[in-house]
């Protein structure tokens, strides 16, 4: 986006968004070995996160919106709900920094179906796949934090650093979402320097 372009309605974040609190719903995740669950990616291939070697980052988010389509009523009042597009763009823009701290793969994860995710991945020119857990198999298997909005069950925003199929570190809650990638890079730089 050039300096003269205004951010789209999915990129701009209101300044008065409610800050999510740590409700302890992700406390069980660090150290967890991932189960074998195949998640379809927007690149057209299933991904089994338990089978990937090296460092992997997965950022879970509730849902991406589309420009011109309104968010669900009350969306901005849900702590941590708004900001999926800025978070994805931050991971896109930080890919070189993430690779510099040993990240082999980056994935976004939501409960949205792959076709819906594909539109966002293409529109945002994401150089990594978004993974769909629309059947909530992965979410249930490792008990990822969720919330409901009407009839929808959505993932709460969190970021996992996975090493050789096990969760090494979890950022939860994630706020502000556009700082998520930088938090991962800063953490891993400090972690590696302390070794």
Using only C-alpha atoms, the radius of gyration works out to: 16 Å
The total tally of domains equals 1
> Could you please say which CATH topology applies here?
Glutaredoxin
Which spans have pLDDT < 50 for at least 5 consecutive residues?
A: 1-10
Order of helices and strands: EEEHHEHEHEEEEH
Q: What is the level-2 CATH architecture name?
A: 3-Layer(aba) Sandwich
Across the major sheet, the strand order is 2-1-5-4-3-8-9
Largest sheet: 7 strands, mixed
The percent range for helix content is 10-25%
Q: Report the top-level CATH class.
A: Alpha Beta
Count every beta strand, where a strand is a DSSP E run of 2 or more residues.
Answer: 9
Q: Structural class from helices and strands?
A: alpha+beta
Q: What's the tally of helices?
A: 5
Proportion of β residues?
15-25%
CATH superfamily: Glutaredoxin
Query: What sort of overall outline do the alpha carbons produce when their principal axes are compared?
Result: globular
Structure, explained:
With 195 residues, the chain is an alpha+beta fold. The chain has a single domain, classed as Glutaredoxin (3-Layer(aba) Sandwich), CATH 3.40.30.10. It is built from five helices and nine strands, in the order E-E-E-H-H-E-H-E-H-E-E-E-E-H. A seven-stranded mixed β-sheet has the order 2-1-5-4-3-8-9. Strands 6-7 form a two-stranded antiparallel sheet. A hairpin with a 2-residue loop joins strand 6 and strand 7. The radius of gyration is 16 Å and the shape is globular. The N terminus is likely disordered.
């Amino acid at each position: 986006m050039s300096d003269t372009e205004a951010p789209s309605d999915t990129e701009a974040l209101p300044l008065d968004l409610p800050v999510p609190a740590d409700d302890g719903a992700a406390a069980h995740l660090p150290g967890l070995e991932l189960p074998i669950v195949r998640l379809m990616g927007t690149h057209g291939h299933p991904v089994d996160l338990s089978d990937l070697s090296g460092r992997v980052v997965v950022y879970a988010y509730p849902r991406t919106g589309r420009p011109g389509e309104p968010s669900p009523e009350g969306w901005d009042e849900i702590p941590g709900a708004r900001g999926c597009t800025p978070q994805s763009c931050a991971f896109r823009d930080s890919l070189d920094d993430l690779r510099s701290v040993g990240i082999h793969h980056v994935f976004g994860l939501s409960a949205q179906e792959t076709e819906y995710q594909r539109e966002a991945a293409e529109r945002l020119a994401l150089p990594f796949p978004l993974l769909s857990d629309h059947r909530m198999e992965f979410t249930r298997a490792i008990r990822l934090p969720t919330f409901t909005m009407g009839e929808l069950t959505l993932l709460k925003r969190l970021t996992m650093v996975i090493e050789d199929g096990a969760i090494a570190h979890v950022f939860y809650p994630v706020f502000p979402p556009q700082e998520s990638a930088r938090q991962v890079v800063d953490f891993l730089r400090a972690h590696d320097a302390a070794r």
